[in-house]
């Protein structure tokens, strides 16, 4: 499917279609004979670190309207709305530039049509955010004892254009977090994207001739409204340019936007967008068929979600796992809905509670806002490797590279050794979220859970949890191996992420035993945690597995960039890694989550991280039965198995070659959402649309179709025998493979491997070339 079409209007913003490009996303929908769009950009963070929308557009027609259709074409990156207005046909096309931050609305009609175009914004007053779930969109300030003010936006309109912007009043989230974590001496090294930032945009059109300011509302929330009465003509368009700048006075910022608008070529931008989305479509695809239509459904939604991820392929910040660019008014997805498992999950833990309370929040709201949760973010980015969407991975890598100075400063200041420490709940400037580290209670003078060691995070979930930086390093190395691109700029980042584990656990062990290693000459990874689940852990499996996968790959990729001293040290590091722990479960030998732990808090499965992401066990690899038995018998609680959100069960079973379970679980991931747009899954544990939900679905489907070892490309290792389809995917070492399959036959349409061919294996039948 490259085109999704609706034949009826939507009920509200939750029934919108996504469209985007570069770093901009729109939610577009028709409601009550009006056309709406929310506008987002991936770096519009205010002084509290809340990701704000740029505003909302509304098009209202002066005569009677008949809705015909609304369509999204992923091959063109465009949403097209067809109407008749006073019996006159009108087509409205929405698309975004792929070379700069801009949204374009273009019109096609045979006769002029009277309408109004309104820009709306709900941030019209400064207001204090109470110290409760109102601060979830700026999670770093959750439980912060001081005042947190969400500031209003500013607007200037004339007859042909409207400027709208937010100018950050301070950088308190950085200042307070740096001070909280005892790093005032390192404040100047913090990556600061907030201080003095002006972000917003310019809306203009040749149709505009006079503006009227007023007020409006949507879903009961008041907003300012700037309305232009227009006569829509064929070929006319509306341009919305977006920008984020620092160290620039407002007049110069507006002048810069004006100059961009004057040189903006809508027709050329449309051609560039068509070219970009066409190239994405032919770079990689998965088109599947089955008698029960499940295969069609999941491959269609795979395509829709991949499209959503590519809308932020050039962003200054990663696509957020908790909604990306496409959140809407928080209560609307739940209107008239009840009883679904994923809705119920909103009410768990510290989440905002019963969905009816979401009515009080504005359209900027999302749970876990501001921060980047590493275990969730990775699931958005792993599927880009097999899709060949390498450019889109860069925003994630840059988040960590820019945060390296503070991550190293934290280690140096509080432990005195080498390395960088990136916390699980990561602020954009490289430190742990203030709410996870723990704000001091003004009454007690203590952090929330009372820890006094400044080197410890306060949250019991993320305390001693450093493993995500290993996986981030492994992902960057895998990116280099797959794409053939240089990652020299990330060398120091990866080196410091890995050296932390070598230095830190020798340092800790030396304090208590006067020795760097245990009696066998091995590192002791303790105190630690296996994911957020297995607490007070010793030698957690995800850490050992991750280091065993990543250190050799580091030496391979950077072979020509490191000297003999570093090579010797990293080889010594590798030799000191303990073996993966095992345990007997239900009479079977299984991989243990850690060699020792005391409690289980959460629902992850670190004992299967050697399967994914590190792929040390799986089809075509040694000891497959050990990994399979770990899946079958090595789980401590059924709540560790799941289909919503970030649960990775579908990936595990695909890599273990279980076609039936892989198909069933991947279908649960990628089947049509209960929202109108099929790829708006969630909220799961996070928010809606849940991007780590879609990411796990994509990864699982990819692994059902193609897996790879050092010597082999394995086709259809976990695919039902009654499925058929056409696939093109990227492989390791700059290779690609295109094949079709069905009825026990595989036909290789194309196999390009510039660094040497591997053996292609299909155990389910015959291969034809």
From TrEMBL:
Gene3D superfamilies xrefs: 1.50.10.10
Domain DUF5703: 5-286
Cleaved signal peptide residues: none
Highest taxon listed in the record's lineage: Bacteria
Name used for this protein in its record: DUF5703 domain-containing protein
Natural source organism: Lacticaseibacillus hegangensis
């Amino acid at each position: 499917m490259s085109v999704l079409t609706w034949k009826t209007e939507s009920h509200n913003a939750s029934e919108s279609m996504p469209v985007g490009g570069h770093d901009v996303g729109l939610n577009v929908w028709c409601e009550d004979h009006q056309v709406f769009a929310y506008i987002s950009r991936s770096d519009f963070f205010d002084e509290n670190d809340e990701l704000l929308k740029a505003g909302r557009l509304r098009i209202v027609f002066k005569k009677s309207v008949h809705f015909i259709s609304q369509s999204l074409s992923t091959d063109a990156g465009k949403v097209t709305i067809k109407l008749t207005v006073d019996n006159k046909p009108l087509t409205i096309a929405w698309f975004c530039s792929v070379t700069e931050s801009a949204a374009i609305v273009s019109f096609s009609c045979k006769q002029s049509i009277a309408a109004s175009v309104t820009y709306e914004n709900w941030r019209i007053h400064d207001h204090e955010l109470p110290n409760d779930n109102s601060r979830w969109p700026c999670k770093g300030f959750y439980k912060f004892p001081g005042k947190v003010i969400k500031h209003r936006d500013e607007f200037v309109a004339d007859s042909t254009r409207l400027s709208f912007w937010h100018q950050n009043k301070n950088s308190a989230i950085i200042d307070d977090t740096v001070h909280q974590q005892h790093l005032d001496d390192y404040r100047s090294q913090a990556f600061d994207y907030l201080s003095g930032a002006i972000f917003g945009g310019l809306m203009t059109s040749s149709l505009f001739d006079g503006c009227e300011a007023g007020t409006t509302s949507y879903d009961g929330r008041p907003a300012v409204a700037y309305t232009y009465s227009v006569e829509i003509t064929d070929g006319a368009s509306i341009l919305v340019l977006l920008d984020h700048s620092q160290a620039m006075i407002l007049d110069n910022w507006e002048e810069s936007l004006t100059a961009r608008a004057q040189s903006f070529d809508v027709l050329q931008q449309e051609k560039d967008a068509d070219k970009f989305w066409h190239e994405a479509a032919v770079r990689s695809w998965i088109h599947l068929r089955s008698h029960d239509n499940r295969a069609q459904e999941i491959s269609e939604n795979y395509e829709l979600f991949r499209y959503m991820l590519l809308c932020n392929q050039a962003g200054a910040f990663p696509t957020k796992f908790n909604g990306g660019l496409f959140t809407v008014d928080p209560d609307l997805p739940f209107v008239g809905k009840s009883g679904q498992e994923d809705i119920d999950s909103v009410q768990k833990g510290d989440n905002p509670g019963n969905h009816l309370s979401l009515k009080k929040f504005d359209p900027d709201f999302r749970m876990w806002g501001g921060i980047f949760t590493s275990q969730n973010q990775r699931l958005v980015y792993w599927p880009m490797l097999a899709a060949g969407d390498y450019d889109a991975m860069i925003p994630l890598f840059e988040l960590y590279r820019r945060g390296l100075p503070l991550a190293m400063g934290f280690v140096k200041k509080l432990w005195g050794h080498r390395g960088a420490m990136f916390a699980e709940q990561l602020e954009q400037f490289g430190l742990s979220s203030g709410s996870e580290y723990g704000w001091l209670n003004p009454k007690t003078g203590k952090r929330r859970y009372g820890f006094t060691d400044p080197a410890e995070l306060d949250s019991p979930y993320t305390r001693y949890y450093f493993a995500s930086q290993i996986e981030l390093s492994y992902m960057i190395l895998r990116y280099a191996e797959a794409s053939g691109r240089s990652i020299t700029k990330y060398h120091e980042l990866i080196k410091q992420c890995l050296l932390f584990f070598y230095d830190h656990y020798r340092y800790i062990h030396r304090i208590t035993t006067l020795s760097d290693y245990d009696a066998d000459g091995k590192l002791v990874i303790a105190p630690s945690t296996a994911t957020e689940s297995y607490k007070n852990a010793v030698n957690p499996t995800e850490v050992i597995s991750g280091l065993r996968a990543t250190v050799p790959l580091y030496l391979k990729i950077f072979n020509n960039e490191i000297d003999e001293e570093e090579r010797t040290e990293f080889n010594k590091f590798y030799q000191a890694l303990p073996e993966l722990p095992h345990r007997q479960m239900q009479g079977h030998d299984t991989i243990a989550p850690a060699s020792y732990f005391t409690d289980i808090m959460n629902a992850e499965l670190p004992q299967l991280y050697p399967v994914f992401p590190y792929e040390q066990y799986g089809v075509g690899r040694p000891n497959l039965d050990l990994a399979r038995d770990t899946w079958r018998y090595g789980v401590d609680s059924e709540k560790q198995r799941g289909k919503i959100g970030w649960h990775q069960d579908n990936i595990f079973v695909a890599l273990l070659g279980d076609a039936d379970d892989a198909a069933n679980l991947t279908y649960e991931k990628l089947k049509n959402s209960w929202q109108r747009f099929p790829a708006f899954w969630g909220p799961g544990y996070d928010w809606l649309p849940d991007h780590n939900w879609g990411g796990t679905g994509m990864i699982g489907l990819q692994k059902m179709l193609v897996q790879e070892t050092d010597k082999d490309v394995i086709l259809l290792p976990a695919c039902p025998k009654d499925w058929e389809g056409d696939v093109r995917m990227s492989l390791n070492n700059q290779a690609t493979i295109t094949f079709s399959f069905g009825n026990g036959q595989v036909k290789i349409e194309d196999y390009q491997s510039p660094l040497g061919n591997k053996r292609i294996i299909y155990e389910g039948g015959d291969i034809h070339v």
